[in-house]
Design goal:
The protein has 368 residues and is mainly alpha-helical. Helix content is 74%, strand content 0%. The protein is built from 13 helices and no strands. This is NPH3 domain-containing protein.
Length: 368
């Protein structure tokens, strides 16, 4: 029936296949884990392709949500058969994740209340552990899915952000997978503005990155500058805590352990907005310090240049001035000496002449 006859027209074959898919959905047992999640997802892919009744598709999506942690990445890569521009059906995965979270909440709230306190407490602890493990597996699955679909250039930032923020923060103990997805999205969308890149990176918690991821993020030019500062700050805190714990273990000083735990608790309890503001203020202070040091260095450089130019000017100007003045003074002194000598010679010759003149006069007077 699925293959159809060659003589039948195509609409008849599609109608028969739709009837088969609807019948399979109707006869699936309602118990959880009665059918594998991989089979349910393949059935859901066929249902979307053949335009099965929406009520049956919704029922099948709920069944997948009940055991969504068993899915694989290959099962989730369902093509988009609607008018959407994206290559994969992102909205379908979003609905499956919502059904999973609703089912987890219903299972946690339906814990037995008539049991004794100790048994109920143990049951709640076991149920909480199972839920957290399932959420962690689903978080890793969603991060891998985001990394795969982020290469689609038609994937909008809003869809990426909504799917990444659908899980609670407690589902991810490490955000390395989410960081890979963000980096892949930034590679495929190089035309994002600074505001859009900051908005994208807000879905990631820098304190949950490993040291390797922090080292990669610190050298990543695609990330905004504020995110890089937050990554460096969280890496410094992790390294200091690791060094403190190592030194305390080696020294055996147990009295300092509460201080480390209190410091760690204080860092974890600090609001993200305060940490962002502190990081931005620290960055501005460092920038101003750098600019001030640059201005000081330029000022000293200019002062040295000015002193060297002054020395060169003095070397060039002093000989000229000295030669002109000295030559002038020398000329004046020579002229003065010459005039003095001439006056002295004239003065010394004048009395002799007068005597010669006066002598004949006297002689003449005597003769007369």
């Amino acid at each position: 029936i699925v293959a159809g006859n060659k003589d039948d027209p195509q609409p008849v074959q599609a109608k028969d296949q739709r009837m088969i898919i609807e019948s399979l959905i109707s006869i699936i047992p309602p118990q959880k884990d009665s059918v594998s999640c991989s089979f349910l997802l393949r059935l859901l892919r066929m249902a979307n392709m053949l335009k099965v009744a929406p009520a049956l598709v919704t029922e099948l999506e709920k069944r997948v949500g009940m055991q969504f942690e068993q899915a694989t990445l290959a099962d989730l890569l369902i093509p988009s058969y609607t008018t959407s521009d994206t290559l994969h059906d992102i909205d379908l995965v979003q609905r499956l994740l919502e059904h999973f979270l609703i089912q987890e909440q219903m299972e946690f709230s339906s814990s037995p209340s008539r049991q004794p306190y100790s048994e109920k407490h143990m049951y709640d602890a076991a149920q909480r552990g199972n839920n957290s493990n399932a959420k962690m597996r689903v978080a890793r699955l969603v991060d891998s899915y985001l990394t795969e679909v982020s290469r689609d250039r038609n994937l909008s930032l809003t869809k990426f952000q909504v799917l990444a923020e659908a899980l609670p923060e407690s589902a991810r103990t490490c955000d390395d997978g989410l960081y890979r997805a963000i980096d892949s999205y930034l590679k495929a969308h190089p035309t994002l503005s600074e505001h859009e890149r900051k908005r994208l990176c807000r879905v990631m918690d820098c304190q949950k990155l490993s040291i390797d991821a922090c080292m990669h993020a610190a050298q990543n030019e695609r990330l905004p500058l504020r995110i890089v500062v937050q990554v460096l700050f969280s890496e410094q805190v992790k390294i200091s805590n690791a060094i403190a714990n190592t030194s305390l273990k080696e020294a055996g000083e147990s009295q300092y352990q509460p201080m480390v735990s209190n410091r760690k608790t204080l860092l974890e309890g600090t609001p993200q907005s305060f940490q962002e503001g502190w990081a931005a203020a620290k960055k501005d202070i460092n920038t101003l310090k750098f600019e001030l040091e640059t201005v000081k260095a330029k000022y000293l450089e200019l002062q040295n240049d000015m002193e060297s130019m002054q020395r060169q000017f003095d070397k060039v100007a002093k000989p000229k001035q000295a030669s002109a003045w000295t030559s002038g003074w020398k000329k004046l002194s020579k002229m003065t000496k010459m005039t003095n000598l001439e006056n002295h010679d004239i003065g010394s010759q004048m009395p002799n002449a007068e005597q010669t003149r006066k002598t004949p006069r006297r002689w003449r007077n005597s003769i007369s």
